[in-house]
Amino acid sequence: MELGITPRRVARLALVGAFVAAASTARAQETIWTSYSVAKNAEFGSSVDVLGDLDGDGVDELVAGAPGDGFNYTGWVKVVSGADGSKLSTVLGKNMGDQFGSSVATVGDLDLDGTPDYVVGAQGADVAGSDSGAVYAISEATGAVIYEVDGSAAGDKLGVSVAALGDADGDGFGDFAASSWAGYAFMISGSTGNVLAVLSGTKPSTGHPTVVAGGGDLDGDGVPDVAFGDLWSSLGSTFGGAVSLFSGATGKLLYEIGSSVPAADFGVVRYVEDIDGDGTSDLFIGAPLDWTYAANGGSAWLYSGRSGTLLSGFVPGSATAGDGWMMGTSVHSAGDTNGDGFVDWLIGVPGYAGSPARDRGAVFLMSGSDGGLLYHFEEPAGTWHGLGSMIGRPNDFDRDGMPDFLFGSPLASLVTSGGDVSIRTGHGFWVDSMPRIAVANQAVTLSIGQVVPFAPYVLVLRGVDGTPSFTPLVFGQLDPAGRASLSGNVPSGLGAHTIDFQAFTFDPWGKVFGSGVETLTTQ
Fold first, then answer.
1. For burial by CB atoms within 10 Å, which of 113, 273, 405, 500 has the most?
2. Whose CA is closest to 407, among 367, 377, 429, 368?
């Protein structure tokens, strides 16, 4: 749909935008709330999942893990309110070194008390030998252990990853998978804790993490299947990594996908929506140490779930910009964020080097229609937050009809490496400042989109240093992809300021709507 840019439409856009701005408080494009660890070195946010609405406020709660626990590595998990991030309950690990909270997954009501329960990985537990690992099913209502599943031998580190599968054995309970550092994963009955199948690829690794994902039915038998990422498998290249797909009904290997790049850590896998229209869930796979495009720059790839055929991929934009990014450390579908009929994508980039402070980490929201960047979430200040290390399932936490985004930052430092979990606002379109913190004479680009092609837009100054404003800066027209880009340099001598921007345009039905508010910080 093309909307011509005419003086009348531009005037309407400015007037209606001004009314919207005057009638309501502008919403920032980033954080709704953040839940911090108050303990140093807890690594809170290493794992996170959506749990369900426990307090009846209409917003789903979360469960998140902190396996570091002050570097004694006992570990703990915390259930927090989805509405405001406040603590609802905490469950502690058993022993020093267990790393309880290495992974978490919501699996449904296992003890039939009417509330959803969850499983927790403790990869350092010593039940079957030093670091054999364990997985615990936890009652959400009481915090009690329903049952535990132990690793097979010393060093296995079972519980490095856990994932809900759905009901694989047909008994009415949600089942799950748990993986190890020993090249295997267990498929586990949710009702009993019994191991239903032991899964391993044709060229398994040892001594390196693995990842499990569940929920997609690849072979069409009505039973959810299991994806197993072995990040050091040499199936395709030496230690390049591989993903093996297994039948949830029988444990039989369906097929495998191997990395062509050595030592890429290919295998950070998620099931996603049916992208290629064949009626089967597809696969989103990260390779955070892929060095093809930049030194440890990483990459992320979409594959057909039915055939394993490569569909598309995302890579760092340039070799120098992408050095050390570790793009693909976590991946997730974002859903269709802008209503264009295409699923968009979230990619964790924990080594992202924001300027001038480095390695705050980031999550890139990528367009499903053209593969371009829609927005990049990053921490506002400090170093080594690890944002992008963990991405949870999107959910509408602020009840505005748009999916919001769930991130874990295990190195965030309200206290030293205490970690945090945050909810970031979802929007129908975005203004993205690159970089978000800039110094004198540094180039800055503001990107607007992605919405209706050729629609008129207005970019507005919404505030400076906390003082509200509504000053139109630029009237323009979006390009054929529904985007616009504006660039300039920070003036010499400008000094330290926060500058807020917002854009307005038309949706496909001719209604004016606004982006969130983007803040550029100058130093």
1. 405
2. 377
